[in-house]
Amino acid sequence: MKLEVRNISISSLITSSVPIVVFALAVLGGVVTFMVVPNPQLDPMSMGQKMMSVGLFALLYVIIVSALMVFMAFLYNILTGVLGMKGVVLGIEEISGHE
């Protein structure tokens, strides 16, 4: 069975678990950036300052990525709904039983 995605709910992007997953990945990226990789510019920072840097980095990253996803969903909805372009087609196969 083939299904075509014609509309992406923008509110579902924001209220789903997607921002939490992005936040978790951003925290990991912040830890790697500010604590793991040696950087001579970060040597004078205390551990508290590094933790604050990781938190602010993760927060800003989530805001930017969420805004980008909302913009992409809005653009997708305009291209498929208003202009009538073809949407993403998903091929879904039904499995009749477990072996």
Can you give a write-up of this model?
The protein has helices at 10-15, 18-36, 47-82, and strands at 2-5, 88-91. With 99 residues, it is mainly alpha-helical. α2 (18-36) runs antiparallel to α3 (47-82).
How would you summarize what this structure contains?
The protein is mainly alpha-helical and 99 residues long.
Q: Which structural category do the helix and sheet elements fall into?
A: mainly alpha
Radius of gyration using CA atoms only: 20 Å
What pattern of helices and strands is seen along the backbone?
EHHHE
Average residue-wise pLDDT: 92
Shape: elongated
Strand order of the largest sheet: 1-2
Distance between the termini: 22 Å
- In helices, the fraction of residues equals 55-70%
Low-confidence stretches: none
Number of strands: 2
How many DSSP H or I helices? 3
